[in-house]
Amino acid sequence: MRRLRLFLMIAMFALCVSFLGACEKPDASDDDDDFSPYGDDDDDTDDHDVNTKEGLHRCQDCDDVLEWIQRTLTLQAQRAIDQNYENSLDWGGDWWDDDVDWDDDGWDDDADDDFFPDDDQAGDDDENADDDDHSDTNVQEDGVDEADIVKTDGDLLYLLAGGNLMLFDPAPPVETRELSRLDIEGRTLEMFLYDDLVVVFSELSPAELPEDVWPAVERDDLYWNILLLTFVDTANPGVPTVIRKLYTEGAYLQSRLINNLMRLVLNTAPQVPNYNTWIDPWSYSQDGELDEQALRAAYDNLMNQIRTQVISMTLDDWLPRYFEIIGAQTSSGFISECEDYFRPDDPMGHSVSTVMTINLDAPTTKLPDIALLADGQLIYASTQALYISNTAESWQTWYDDDNIQKSWIHKFVLKDQQIQAEYIASGEIAGFVLNQFSMSEKDGYLRVASSTGWWSDLKNYIHVLIAVDGSLDIVGGIEGIAPGEEIKSARFMGDKGYLVTFEQSDPLFTIDLSNPADPRIIGELEIPGFSTYIHAFDDNHILTIGEDGDEWNSTGGVVLQLFDISDFADPVLAFREVVAEGWDATSEAMYDHKAFMFYSPMDLMAVPVREWGWDDWGDDDDWDDDDVWNDDDDVSFDDDEPVDPPLFRDAAPPTDGAYSGVYLYDVTADGGFDMLGYIDHSNYEAEPESESFGDMPTVRRCVVIGDYLYTISDAALVVTEIESVTDLASDDLPYEDGRQGWGDDDWWDDDDMWD
User: What is the pTM of this model?
Assistant: First the structure.
């Protein structure tokens, strides 16, 4: 047992040091003994102003950028080496002494352990609705469009399927027909629709690039993810025309469209040299005695070798590039000019976060772009500002009481007709941010929900920040929310906020944000299960989707809930609908808000559901007397031979076997959830020659146009009359897996062993 635990500790440390600078040695001078982002628990708002760090600094020229990059790599390597040397001093002898850190039962609780903390340490309006008789992408903020795999202007339906941009004419619905399709390079991600212009995002590997793209650059020198923006003119929907291709080095983070200006955030992680920052201490020990001086000299020599490697790096090794094709003309260079780079005072990772701006009224014009020498992990945007969040680089902050995990947030102002996002301020908060809905801005104040710790040590926070002289200062907040519980969803709307945490049950917290300096939890309601997405229903109600549960834990399945918040201090569960039960049931809308569709003009909710028919596997009826699977059991997948779906739906959904489709509900504040029927995609198959999507297609999106619902799965587009829940037409779609190289023959040798 002792050897096993030691092995696990060594393995964890080896994983840590394999990443450059992963185990950063804490600097005691920068840490408070009792970290609190809000000061004392009193009403003095001055105590909340503890975040006084300066913002990022604009680089003066390319020499300034390169100097910072080299300094970052050197500093990270030095920190890793210093940490590894200090750990080597312990590992050289005492770790093997049974009387020091191990007792008869394993780890000695009385030992001086700095690796793990003690147990008590650690620290609207309806987005789908539209005045044009059709639904839109479900977005977080009014006036801020988000890219999606399906778009419509009410006249045409645009969708991405099987690596193609496809255009459909939905009128008349019974004769919905494909007008055209355009093959898009790479694996399609999502798109924007702006008048007759479509901008498609797709990703490629360097090996997949055409030979005439970056012809002078070795493919091994490119970042391993290439994002391609394909600009398509669809004024003639039967013959869409590519007017520009823009290749960029970097991974697609997210994008937003406000009026005519598209903001795209890329994260580019250059191929950092594979530094070795660890030396085996046993090579410098004899008879159990470690030669500390010799080991220190070896580490110093290793650091000198790393420094030589770092100095040899150039901007071409680091800064992300672009290559564009407009007609017969090509151009290339760095995405951002050196003067548009911003750097921190201390390393925030070794990635580059780029904020690109594209004016869709002039889609072939390259505008100046801004970049941060810092990691970026998720974004949030209001109509006025864009925020990039990243978690602090130190892996050790998960476990050190004086270094609880922290995140940096960077603010950019988005002004009308501004051709470049303007960097304003940066700030630091406790914890990590779950997703974009954990952030929201009102009147210049950013509200953020975050968590820190691990398992039972989890703690949750609400932070309120505002930009002051280059710094995002914390002006108010709530700390220690639901200790030991995990944030499952959050939403801020106006002066109200909602937070759902989970351990065994689902506490829904209502939060008064009207005073930024003094946000307060007003109400709390505990119910089984938990919500994964919170949606504005009306002024007095919120609508959620999530996972079912009982008094002990979550039980799987899909559940809808309508909460009455007219008394904000006393939220009430008004209606609850279990859409599908069991661990084998899920919904795309639970974790992708763009798959969630509530269309308020019709009180219509469409819920994608997928059930595998596995929930009662293992029951006695599933096995015969010989412990052999009972082939006569009804709980099994349908035969390979496709079955034509019925055109008319009964109100009751299927109850046995595998199923993939959409459940339709009429949802009102007075009546709750009234099921209208369902649309079955289970037996549709993708176009011939498409890749396999498995046993059943998954429904990805639902769109309303007029009185009809268009449901899109991996395999088909189905048109349904809403009033009668009658399927009028369907069209098979192409399917493409989208994974790079998975399943290729050369991944396996002849003996089916990993190659």
Answer: 0.82
